[in-house]
Amino acid sequence: MSDRWQTRISEYLDGELTPSENQRFEQHLAECGECRTALVEIREVVHQAAQLPTPEPPESMWEGVQKRIAHQGFDAPIAESNVVELPRGENRTHWFSGIRALAAALFLAILAGGTGYWLRGPGDTVDVSAPELADALADYEASVAQLEASLLGYADRMDSRLYETIEGNLETIDRAIFEARVALNDDPKSEYLNAHLQDSMMRKVRLLRQVTQLAGNHI
Amino acid sequence: MADDAVDATLAVAGDGAAFERLYLRHAPRIYGLALRMAQSADPEEMVQEIFVRAWQKLGSFKGEAAFSTWLFRLGVNLILTRRSKLAKLWARELNGDELLVDVPARPSHVDASMDFENALRRLPNGAREVLVLHDVEGFKHGEIGDMLGISVGTSKSQLHRARMSMRKVLRQ
After folding, report:
1. Phi, psi for A128 (deg, rounded to 5)
2. Which residues of B touch A62 (CB under 8 A)?
3. CB contact under 8 A, A45 and B35
4. B103 with B90, same domain?
5. Residue A95 is assigned to a structural domain of this protein
6. Does A142 contact B at CB distance below 8 Å?
7. Chain-centre distance for alpha carbon B59
8. Is residue A61 in some structural domain?
């Protein structure tokens, strides 16, 4: 077998040679029985590799994933039954109009407590002053408004089923924000409630940010 | 938007049902990757770790590449990291330059795909990884280079090397 061409067999099979290289390789094949044999055998390797069955994972594996996620302290996934599905044709902008009022109410509720808690990550709680909190909430509100506007720009071109699903999930998050706000009225210094509120607010921003980014890439 | 991108987006917002759909679509291929690439004693544990990490890192999925590519990259990275740790733990040098040698002839009663799988396990790590990703999973050399941290040229030469070794098995 010619060493010169031996290393090019895979490239030939994968269509990676230039047209002139391809032509020269085929001229060589016509003269070299060893390379022809190698080509046939390697083609069979490629064929068998592509035909390998995809193994079926054990059914218990998903349960293990869920347990590990829960064990590591990440948010428990929202059950499908808890995700609100909006009826088709409902006004798509309804949750946009509500968010500013909600943010304003939230802002006032937390300020009523004097100071609030702002979490940077799990277990990393920091006290913030009222002005700092006001700045953070203003930034949050501006981010949400900007992302909502971006998403609206894609709304008409987005699959209606998808849009409704996104709405449903945003509704779920909004409800969590609302419930946390109500609870904070009674217990404004609760670290747990503040963390829950902030997490829900961040979830909303993450969802909006990712939806708009994906829409920008795919629509 | 593809189903994966939609479900990834919903999962970022904490929608567990969407994450489960991602799992159901991709777990078989990831399981195959763990079986063939990791050669771990417990591929199920490896797969679980990959999906737990995927859940943690979903926010970094921007939809610029296919979700499967993103997930495979994450999986390959974890598998390589795990293997490196195990190698240190066992204080055993994994020789990537070993060649496939003395492969036994295929008994007539053994299923050909099992024989292929067995031969695959005996390939040097680098060659096996590239063959699995290219010929089994269908990734391109550029993608494989990104996943494994090697050049396109190295990926091509490893692939050819792996195929040349595997053909000896099929010849027998």
Report:
1. -130, 150
2. 20, 23-24, 27
3. no
4. no
5. yes
6. no
7. 22
8. no
Chain pair A-B, CB pairs under 8 angstroms:
160
Handedness of CA A99, A185, A79, A213 (dihedral sign): positive
DSSP conformation class of B8: H
Kindly report the CATH number assigned to the domain that includes residue B71. Answer: 1.10.1740.10
Same-domain pairing of B57 and B114: no
Taking the C-alpha atoms of residue B10 and residue A162, their distance in angstroms, rounded to an integer, is: 10
B90 and B102 fall within a common domain: no
Output the tens digit of pLDDT for each of chain A's 219 residues. Answer: 556 788 899 999 999 999 999 999 999 999 999 999 999 999 999 999 999 999 999 988 999 998 888 876 555 443 333 333 322 333 333 333 333 334 434 443 444 443 344 433 334 444 455 666 666 677 777 778 878 888 877 777 777 777 777 777 788 888 888 888 878 777 777 777 777 787 788 778 878 877 787 777 766
Task: Note whether residue A164 is domain-resident.
Answer: yes
Give DSSP secondary structure letters for B33-95. HIIIII--S-HHHHHHHHHHHHHHHGGG--SSS-HHHHHHHHHHHHHHHHHHHHHHHHT----
Q: How many CB atoms lie within 10 A of CB B77?
A: 15
Regarding pTM above 0.90, the answer is: no
Asked if residue B82 lies in contact with residue B53, where contact means CB atoms within 8 angstroms, the answer is no
Tell which residue, A62, A134, A55, has the closest CA to residue B34. A55
Give the one of A41, A68, A210 whose C-beta lies nearest to B12's C-beta: A210
